[in-house]
């Protein structure tokens, strides 16, 4: 079983909350829907009765999630304005937009290249801007705009300055957008999970092992040490928060950066 698969299988076997809202008749577009948190969001929203559309750059992973959830799959590049517009054209009417697509890279600050900087801002910040802007333009009445940021949007981490800068930008963007739309039936919020039990974190563990010589257990411990609960966050916890933001009683939740991190921030 690949690294992290045992942990993820255990999380997947847990039942979802009985307070999941009924989203029948709602359309949801999830970027970065082919893996990690995006794939779990697709499952969760499909279980809640929503019409789910997932988007990403890799057709294979999208098709796998679509087959498992009944979602429609669209290939798109969230860093490209025309591609984002075409993505919404193909998705059809949606009331919930989740800007989840992202990527991570690491390097000491002094050795971080301009190419790395631009790449991190393009997918993690510009991609969120283009997705939420087009989503807002397409809304007709009630809506929910959700960005998936990170605890890196609320604090600093060493060796990932461009990623941290981009995620801080996502939180600021979301808060600013929330002020503009506050008088209508649309809200905008950011979800800020800590290290997630996903493929991206597996790659971070591999990088720690490669650069420090630690074994996998020690490398994973270095990541979970930032969480007071000493664990990775399950993607299902992000999905539960997103579903809550789309259910009754969440109308007053607007412009928030919701940490899902065991008390880290």
Automatic annotation (TrEMBL):
Gene3D superfamilies: NAD(P)-binding Rossmann-like Domain. It comes from the Bacteria. GO terms for biological process: monocarboxylic acid metabolic process. Residues 26-198 form the Ketoreductase domain. InterPro entries: KR_dom (IPR057326), NAD(P)-bd_dom_sf (IPR036291), Sc_DH/Rdtase_CS (IPR020904), SDR (IPR050259), SDR_fam (IPR002347). It holds the Pfam family adh_short. Belongs to the short-chain dehydrogenases/reductases (SDR) family. This is SDR family NAD(P)-dependent oxidoreductase. The lineage of its organism: Bacteria, Pseudomonadati, Pseudomonadota, Alphaproteobacteria, Rhodobacterales.
């Amino acid at each position: 079983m690949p690294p992290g698969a045992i942990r993820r299988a255990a999380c997947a076997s847990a039942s979802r909350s009985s307070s999941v809202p009924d989203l029948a008749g709602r359309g949801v577009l999830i970027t970065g829907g082919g893996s990690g948190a995006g794939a779990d969001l697709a499952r969760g929203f499909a279980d809640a009765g929503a019409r789910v559309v997932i988007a990403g750059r890799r057709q294979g992973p999208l098709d796998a999630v679509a087959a498992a959830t009944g979602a429609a799959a669209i290939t798109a590049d969230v860093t490209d304005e025309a591609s984002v517009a075409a993505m919404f054209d193909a998705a059809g009417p949606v009331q919930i937009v989740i800007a989840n697509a992202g990527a991570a890279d690491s390097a000491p600050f002094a050795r971080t290249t301009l190419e790395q900087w631009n790449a991190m801002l393009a997918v993690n910040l510009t991609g969120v801007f283009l997705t939420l802007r087009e989503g807002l333009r397409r809304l007709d009445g009630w809506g929910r705009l959700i960005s998936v940021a990170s605890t890196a949007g609320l604090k600093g981490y060493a060796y990932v300055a461009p990623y941290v800068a981009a995620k801080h930008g996502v939180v600021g963007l979301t808060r600013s957008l929330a002020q503009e739309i506050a008088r209508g039936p649309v809200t905008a919020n950011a979800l800020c999970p800590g290290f997630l039990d996903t493929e991206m974190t597996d790659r971070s563990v591999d990088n720690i092992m490669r650069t420090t010589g630690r074994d996998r257990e020690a490398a994973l411990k270095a990541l979970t040490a930032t969480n007071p609960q000493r664990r990775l966050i399950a993607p299902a916890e992000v999905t539960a928060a997103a579903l809550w933001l789309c259910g009754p009683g969440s109308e007053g939740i607007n412009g928030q950066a919701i940490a899902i991190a065991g008390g880290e921030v």
